[in-house]
Specification:
Layout (H helix, E strand, L loop, with lengths): L13 E4 L2 E4 L5 H21 L3 H21 L3 H22 L20 H4 L3 H12 L5 H7 L16 H6 L8 H7 L5 H6 L1 H14 L17 H38 L1
Antiparallel strand pairs: 1-2
Helix pairs in contact: 5-10, 8-10
Length: 268
């Protein structure tokens, strides 16, 4: 009250505290609306300046500065995960480039590291992919693997070669000469590095393995399971009926034996 006059202060719908507009129910609707209007005015102004070179440069500077400030003060968990993932991948690739490949996989190790599976992984059947992996790593049903890890197994090739190696199977073995044209379409010289370390080579190698049966335990193509037919179903039903008949006969015999035993016990 001032000089006899009363002053009434009415409660407002929103109040601004430290730059944030708060309403009675804390929905932040007013704050979002005001910030959206402010951003809209800024974008409109940038669009008006965009018709000049100086305006474009100024808009780029403001956008970069805004992105930098947002990154510093408002880093989200998703953004932090993405940055961490990128740093790990960069470190992994530097290590891959720095380290010289060794072992049986060395000649096939030409793809840089990646979080996602390569194309040859998801477009190859499980069985053929198993053969392909054995071929690329030299850990499979081949003589040079047996010579190192299974000394009681034979290490020669059925074609007569003294030591069965991966290179021999792919390039020289007479057993697979009819299917070797598949590989020559990808590399005429049958270079092992290209066949096992490139997209085209792996695609041809997968087809070669499926047709030839190379790098399986028998070295022959596996027989595909035939689909059941009506005759197979009739045979199965006949076998089930025979089995049920045998069970019924055995059951009656057992019941008869039990009744005879009971009568003998009563007579005694």
């Amino acid at each position: 009250m001032e000089d006899g006059w009363e002053t009434t202060i009415e409660a407002g719908d929103t109040i601004r505290i430290l730059g944030v507009y708060l309403d009675r129910k804390l929905t932040f609707y007013q704050h979002v609306r005001k910030m959206a209007d402010k951003a809209k005015r800024a974008v409109t102004g940038m669009q008006m300046l965009a018709n000049t070179i100086r305006g474009n440069e100024r808009a780029d500077e403001e956008a970069k500065e805004g992105a930098r400030l947002w990154t510093q003060d408002y880093t989200t968990i998703t953004h932090a995960k993405r940055q961490s993932k990128e740093k790990m991948m960069e470190k992994w690739r530097r290590e891959w480039i720095r380290t010289a490949p060794t072992g049986g996989f060395a000649r096939a190790n030409k793809f840089p590291p990646s979080w996602k599976p390569r194309q040859h992984v998801w477009e190859t059947s499980r069985e053929v992919f198993s053969q392909l992996t054995q071929c690329r790593t030299k850990h499979g049903f081949i003589g040079e693997y047996y010579a190192r890890f299974v000394p009681n197994k034979r290490t020669d090739c059925p074609c007569g070669e003294h030591l069965q190696t991966r290179d021999h199977i792919i390039q020289d073995c007479r057993r697979y000469e009819t299917h070797r044209e598949i590989l020559r379409e990808a590399d005429e010289n049958l270079d092992i590095g290209n066949l096992l370390g490139s997209k085209e080579g792996l695609r041809a190698m997968a087809k070669f393995l499926e047709k030839s049966g190379a790098f399986t335990k028998t070295g022959e193509p596996r027989m595909k399971a035939s689909k059941p037919t009506a005759d197979d179903e009739e045979n199965d039903e006949g076998n089930e009926e025979e089995e049920e008949g045998e069970i019924g006969e055995n059951g009656e015999g057992e019941e008869a034996g039990e009744s005879d035993g009971e009568e003998e016990g009563e007579e005694r």
